[in-house]
Design the sequence.
C-alpha cells in the first residue's frame, strides 16, 4: 500500500499565513496598490506588467495553496482589477550570479562533452590569435619594405600576407563552427536537464495547474529561452573566451612600446565604460524578462485558438479572438519598445567606446613620440613603429570595447538566466512539497490488501476552500462505486486526492501496493499520444507496444466498440501526431481510453465522467465489459442511469459533507445478467452474447 498523508509543507504554509510572515514576491496586489509608477520608464514598465495578465488571463486568475499564504485577497471588493504581480526585480546581482552558476554547473557537469568542446575551442582561438597578431603587424612590415624600396622583400611579404589573411579567415570560420556546435550541445544538455526535473510525476501537473502564477510559461522557458540563452552565450564565448590572455599579452606589448602611460589610459577608460555599461544593462535584464513573458502569452493565445478553433467558430467568437490577439500583440510590442528604449543609451555607449578607443590609441602613440623616445630612428622605422603601436593599442582598446559591446548579449544572458533560474527554483520548491506528500511503503501484512482506503480524510482546494471533511470509505475490488453530487461538490477533487495530485489536510489514504498497475484513471478528455495505434493502446508504456499482437488490437478495439478505426488508420504501426485528434471524435477518444483499460485490465478503473461523450448503448457496454473483465469502477458521473452499474453510491453535498449508500434498484451484476439492460436502449440478445464472448476471449488471451 502507498500512503498519502498531509504534506508538512502545506501545514507550514498555513502556519505562515496565520503568522503573517510570508514570501514577498508573487504577491497578489491590485492596481490601486500604493506603489504607483514614479518616472517615465517606470510607468512604462508598470503598464506592461499590469497589462500582461489582464489581457491573457481571461479565466479568473489562478490562485494556489502558496498564494494563499500571502494572505492577499484576489477579487476582494474594491479590487476592480486584481492581478498577480512579481515584486522581484531581475538584475545583475547575487541572485543572478547564483542562478548562472547553477546553469553553468549543469553545462559543465561530469558527463558533459561541453568541457572538452570548450577547451578545444579555446586552444583553437589561441592558435588563431597568433595568426591575427601576425596579420596586425603586416602594415608595419609594408611601411618598412616600402620605405627601404626593397622589391624582393615586398613580393615575399605579399605572398606571406595573402596566406596569413586566408588562414585568419579560415580560423574565424572554424571558431564559428566550434561555437555553434557548443551552443547546440549546451541547448541539448540544458533542455534534457529541465526535462528531467520538470516532466516528473505530478510535478508537471502542479506547476501548470496550480502554481502557474509563480512561474509563467514554463513550456516557453524550456523550448525557447534555453535556445536564446545558449545563442547569447555562444556570441559572448566567441568574443570573450581568451580575452584575458589577449589583454595580458597586448598590455605587455603596449607597455613595451609606449611605457606604463599607455595601458594606464586604456584601463582607466575601460573601468569607466564598464561602470556606465553595468548601470545601463540592469534595466534591460528586467525588460527582457517581461518581454519573454509577453512573448509566451502571445504564443499561448494562438495555441489556444488552435486548440479551441471549433468551439470559437461555433460561438462566433472570432471577433473576440482577434481583439485579444491584437491586445496581446500590443503588450508584446510595448515590451519590445521598452527594450529598444533601454538599449539606446547602451548602444550609444558601445559605439562611442569603440570610436573614442581608436582616438585614444593615437594619444598613446603620441606620448612616446613627443617625448622623443624614437627620435634616433630613421623615418621608415618610425612609420613602422607608429603602425605597430597603433595596432597594439587599438587591439587592446578593441578587446575592452568588445566587453562593452557584449553588453547586449550579456543582458540577454542575464534575462534568460533569470527566467530559467526562477523555473528551477520553483521546481525545487515543488519537489520538496511533493516529498512532503509522503508515499510510504506498507508493512508486509498490508501488501496483499488490494482495497483503496480513505481514513477520515479532509482536503481543500488550492485556494483554501474546504472540499470534503472526514471522508472515510473503503473501495473494495468487485464492488463498483458511483460518486455523485452537484457541480463543484468536489467529485473530481476526490479523485485528485486519490491520485496524489492534491494533498490531504487531515487523515490518510491507503492505496494498493501495486498502485500503478492496479489503479488506472480515465479522465473526461483522454490524452492521445503521438504514435501508432499499438502505442495508443499501451499508453503510457510505449515500450510494450511490440508485445501487442494484431489479434489483441482487434479484440480490445472490438470490446471498446472502436473496431471501425482499423479502416481509418493505414496500419497498426503507422505513426500519427496531431491527426489522432482529427481521426477520432470526442466519443471515440473516450472509447480509445476504454480500449487501453481493457488491454491493461487493472483491479480498479477510476472514471471521471469518462463516458460523457458516449452514446447510451456504448456507455452501458463499457461498464458491462469492465464487469466481465473484473475491473471495479469508481465512477464520477451525472448520469443517474449509470448508478445501476454500481453497487455503492457516494453523494457529496457540496458543503464538505458526504453520504454513503447502497445502490437500491438493481445492481451491476443483475444488469449484466440481461434484464436490467432495459435501462438503456433495446439491444439484441446476439449483441449481448457477442460482447460476453469477446470479454471471455480477452480473458483468456491477456
Ligand atoms: N486549481 C484549483 N484552484 C482552486 N480551486 C479549484 C481548483 N480546481 C478546482 N477547484 C475548486 O474545487 C471545487 C471542486 O471542484 P471539482 O472539479 O472537484 O468539482 P466537481 O464536483 O467535479 O464538479 P463538476 O460536477 O462540475 O465536474 C470547485 O469549487 C472548484 O472551483
Sequence:
Amino acid at each position: 500500500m502507498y500512503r498519502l498523508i498531509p504534506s508538512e509543507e502545506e501545514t507550514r504554509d498555513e502556519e505562515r499565513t496565520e503568522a503573517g510572515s510570508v514570501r514577498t514576491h508573487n504577491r497578489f496586489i491590485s492596481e490601486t496598490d500604493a506603489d504607483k509608477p514614479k518616472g517615465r520608464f517606470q510607468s512604462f514598465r508598470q503598464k506592461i506588467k499590469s497589462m500582461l495578465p489582464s489581457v491573457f488571463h481571461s479565466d479568473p486568475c489562478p490562485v494556489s495553496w502558496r498564494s494563499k499564504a500571502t494572505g492577499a485577497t484576489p477579487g476582494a471588493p474594491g479590487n476592480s482589477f486584481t492581478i498577480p504581480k512579481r515584486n522581484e526585480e531581475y538584475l545583475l546581482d547575487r541572485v543572478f550570479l547564483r542562478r548562472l552558476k547553477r546553469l553553468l554547473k549543469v553545462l559543465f557537469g561530469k558527463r558533459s562533452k561541453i568541457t572538452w568542446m570548450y577547451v578545444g575551442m579555446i586552444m583553437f582561438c589561441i592558435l588563431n590569435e597568433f595568426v591575427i597578431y601576425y596579420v596586425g603587424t603586416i602594415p608595419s612590415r609594408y611601411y618598412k619594405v616600402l620605405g627601404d624600396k626593397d622589391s624582393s622583400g615586398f613580393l615575399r611579404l605579399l605572398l606571406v600576407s595573402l596566406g596569413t589573411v586566408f588562414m585568419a579567415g579560415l580560423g574565424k570560420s572554424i571558431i564559428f563552427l566550434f561555437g555553434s556546435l557548443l551552443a547546440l550541445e549546451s541547448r541539448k544538455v540544458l533542455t534534457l536537464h529541465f526535462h528531467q526535473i520538470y516532466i516528473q510525476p505530478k510535478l508537471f501537473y502542479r506547476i501548470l495547474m496550480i502554481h502557474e502564477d509563480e512561474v509563467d510559461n514554463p513550456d516557453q522557458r524550456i523550448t525557447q529561452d534555453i535556445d536564446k540563452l545558449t545563442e547569447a552565450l555562444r556570441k559572448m564565448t566567441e568574443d570573450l573566451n581568451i580575452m584575458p590572455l589577449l589583454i595580458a599579452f597586448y598590455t605587455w606589448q603596449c607597455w613595451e612600446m609606449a611605457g606604463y602611460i599607455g595601458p594606464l589610459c586604456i584601463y582607466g577608460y575601460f573601468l569607466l565604460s564598464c561602470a556606465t555599461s553595468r548601470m545601463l544593462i540592469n534595466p534591460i535584464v528586467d525588460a527582457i524578462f517581461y518581454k519573454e513573458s509577453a512573448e509566451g502569452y502571445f504564443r499561448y493565445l494562438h495555441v489556444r485558438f488552435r486548440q479551441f478553433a471549433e468551439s470559437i467558430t461555433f460561438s462566433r467568437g472570432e471577433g473576440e479572438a482577434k481583439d485579444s490577439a491584437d491586445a496581446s500583440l500590443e503588450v508584446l510590442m510595448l515590451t519590445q519598445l521598452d527594450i529598444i528604449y533601454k538599449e539606446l543609451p547602451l548602444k550609444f555607449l558601445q559605439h562611442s567606446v569603440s570610436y573614442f578607443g581608436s582616438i585614444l590609441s593615437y594619444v598613446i602613440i603620441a606620448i612616446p613620440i613627443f617625448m622623443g623616445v624614437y627620435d634616433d630612428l630613421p623615418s621608415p622605422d618610425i612609420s613602422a613603429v607608429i603602425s605597430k603601436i597603433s595596432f597594439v593599442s587599438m587591439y587592446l582598446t578593441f578587446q575592452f570595447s568588445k566587453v562593452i559591446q557584449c553588453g547586449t548579449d550579456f543582458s540577454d544572458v542575464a534575462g534568460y538566466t533569470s527566467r530559467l533560474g526562477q523555473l528551477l527554483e520553483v521546481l525545487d520548491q515543488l519537489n520538496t512539497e511533493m516529498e512532503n506528500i509522503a508515499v510510504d511503503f506498507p508493512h508486509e501484512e498490508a501488501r496483499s490488501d488490494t482495497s483503496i482506503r480513505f481514513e477520515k480524510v479532509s482536503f481543500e482546494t488550492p485556494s483554501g476552500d474546504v472540499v470534503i471533511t472526514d471522508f472515510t470509505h473503503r473501495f473494495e475490488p468487485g464492488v463498483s462505486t458511483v460518486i455523485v453530487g452537484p457541480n463543484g461538490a468536489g467529485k473530481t477533487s476526490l479523485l485528485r486526492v486519490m491520485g496524489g495530485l492534491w494533498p490531504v489536510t487531515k487523515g490518510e489514504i491507503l492505496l494498493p501496493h501495486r498502485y500503478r498497475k492496479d489503479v488506472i484513471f480515465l479522465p473526461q478528455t483522454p490524452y492521445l499520444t503521438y504514435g501508432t495505434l499499438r502505442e495508443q493502446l499501451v499508453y503510457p508504456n510505449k515500450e510494450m507496444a511490440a508485445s501487442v499482437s494484431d489479434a489483441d488490437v482487434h479484440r480490445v478495439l472490438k470490446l471498446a466498440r472502436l473496431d471501425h478505426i482499423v479502416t481509418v488508420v493505414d496500419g497498426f504501426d503507422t505513426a500519427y501526431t496531431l491527426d489522432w485528434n482529427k481521426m477520432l471524435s470526442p466519443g471515440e477518444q473516450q472509447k480509445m481510453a476504454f480500449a487501453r483499460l481493457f488491454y491493461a485490465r487493472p483491479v480498479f478503473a477510476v472514471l471521471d465522467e469518462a463516458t460523457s461523450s458516449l452514446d447510451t448503448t456504448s456507455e452501458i457496454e463499457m461498464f458491462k465489459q469492465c464487469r466481465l473483465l473484473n475491473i471495479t469502477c469508481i465512477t464520477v458521473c451525472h448520469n443517474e442511469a449509470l448508478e445501476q452499474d454500481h453497487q455503492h453510491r457516494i453523494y457529496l453535498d457540496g458543503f464538505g459533507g458526504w453520504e454513503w449508500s447502497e445502490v437500491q434498484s438493481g445492481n451491476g451484476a443483475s444488469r449484466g445478467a440481461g434484464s436490467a439492460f432495459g435501462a438503456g436502449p433495446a439491444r439484441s440478445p446476439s449483441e449481448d452474447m457477442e460482447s460476453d464472448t469477446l470479454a471471455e476471449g480477452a480473458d483468456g488471451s491477456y
